[in-house]
């Protein structure tokens, strides 16, 4: 059944009162935004504009979205997914001609501190308005017209036409694939992928419920980015097995149980039960998914490919390689048939076009790349050329782990953005987006350094002030690369480096002191940015929620002041690393630690004293104990950490384990695992040999 859209364009209170007065009594209704003056009936679920994504996992007949309270692309896209087939989206907007000129309360997220709202564009909004005007399934009402009847089409009759109560053949196949994970051979995971509305989360839940009903499992562990995202799975499991939700995170049935665990809790204490079910897997970092895959003998994943968060395509490209390498017998199940609405649902179609939910990179043959041309492009030009926009955004979706509709809004309307495309025979094969930062006054810079203020939109200069202690860094102007992506078939051809060079020259020409970037740190990415002339200046103390990695900030000085700041930041990073590795960075991968510190300019390794050298000789060639030698080993670890040329001899193969043990205080079991030896004694012997090869001549 098709869903419809009704737009009530006029004064805020008129739209709210009209919508509230026309709502039927017996419908499931969700209202996002400000309520009417008279309030809403208790049966209506009301959410603030910022909480629109909390409707995920629910099914509603009517969704009212109040755009007077601000246009949140993520919330609108997510909330529309809760609307059943035959349902009605009611969009409350300002008077149509006035909408682009009206202030948007949520627009501040696009605007860096120190800049006005008038600097943000209206390209995304005009794109939405043009789509609504052209789509025949959308009806627009104004105060001059008779009030509309806001009635949804009655829902289709309940009941499944396929086994297990499934609503499509695809869903039945998915259920059986998940059940086979338990009944078949170990290490044969199932991966369910679908565009939204295809019933993949329901299939995962039905499979769990059927396994409980057949008493084939005693304990199933469920995880997802949030408990909200797992609600549908748990509800379908309970319905299928006749179980009881004894609490929000726990389901019991026939003496067995299903429990929800937070993703980070599973990172710290792996647990899989008889089955580990991972829903909305694209919302979790790849490294965490790989860890779950490693520890669980029986695991099933489900994720949306073209979802409101736009991240599923990146998951599909990245995680597939890990599955092929670690569990070559994995089974892919693609659900194609829509369940919640018609295959050609008009609301899903116009929303997908506006939000670029299905944007894909250009279709290319292997080879080429040498003829790519780097061209600057304005936001106006990109907004007017749909093909270029969709190809560029498709690259960002494929290359970055979590790309959302908000990122499209920011790409089109964020002020002081600089865009370059790499094009080959008319196809976009690379894209880079950079933002102007810094230029704050000295008083604000001092407040940033003192950590009394965190001005929005100035990440790089703020990090230099807070992490490196450079008080005046926020007064300098910088150009920070926010996003960069190269077509998968053109990587390794120098296109990424050429895009970075274009941004660097733009920054130099604009008189910036710095060009830099921030990203989830991996040795490969650090190597790329180092090859582009950048140096590490700071590292985040916590893992990034999107990438699952610690964030690294790297920069290049473009004038005398910028060069000095980068060197000073590198010195501070090196000097503080041993203390940071003992606590806030204790769980950062040692290989990443080594890559970051060796990319820092100005880091100065300590010089071993005579007594420290003697202690190390005793540890390496005699039987001096680890505890007795630890103070000297600590200093040697700093030398290894900051050696830009890398370690030599056997230390080159042991340096990650050495850094992890000495500076991060990891247990001997971890050290032995990294060295590939069976326990503490051979691990200690390997470290003695590595230290022997590392002693200065």
From TrEMBL:
Enzyme class name: transferase
EC number in record: 2.3.1.193
Record localization: Cytoplasm
Domain of life (superkingdom): Bacteria
Transferase is among the record's keywords: yes
Catalytic activity: cytidine(34) in elongator tRNA(Met) + acetyl-CoA + ATP + H2O = N(4)-acetylcytidine(34) in elongator tRNA(Met) + ADP + phosphate + CoA + H(+)
SUPFAM superfamilies associated with the record: Acyl-CoA N-acyltransferases (Nat) (SSF55729), P-loop containing nucleoside triphosphate hydrolases (SSF52540)
GO molecular function terms listed in the Swiss-Prot or TrEMBL record: 18S rRNA cytidine N-acetyltransferase activity; ATP binding; tRNA binding; tRNA cytidine N4-acetyltransferase activity
Residue numbers binding ATP: 171, 340
Metal-binding is among the record's keywords: no
GO cellular component: cytoplasm
UniProt: acetyl-CoA binding residues: 484-486
Residue ranges of every copy of the N-acetyltransferase domain listed in the record: 372-559
Pfam family, one: NAT10_TcmA_helicase
Entry keywords, A to Z: Acyltransferase, ATP-binding, Cytoplasm, Nucleotide-binding, RNA-binding, Transferase, tRNA processing, tRNA-binding
One of the GO biological process terms: rRNA acetylation involved in maturation of SSU-rRNA
Function: Catalyzes the formation of N(4)-acetylcytidine (ac(4)C) at the wobble position of tRNA(Met), by using acetyl-CoA as an acetyl donor and ATP (or GTP).
Similarity comment: family membership: Belongs to the TmcA family.
PANTHER family: N-ACETYLTRANSFERASE 10, RNA CYTIDINE ACETYLTRANSFERASE
Protein name per Swiss-Prot or TrEMBL: tRNA(Met) cytidine acetyltransferase TmcA
UniProt source species: Halorhodospira halophila (strain DSM 244 / SL1)
Gene: tmcA
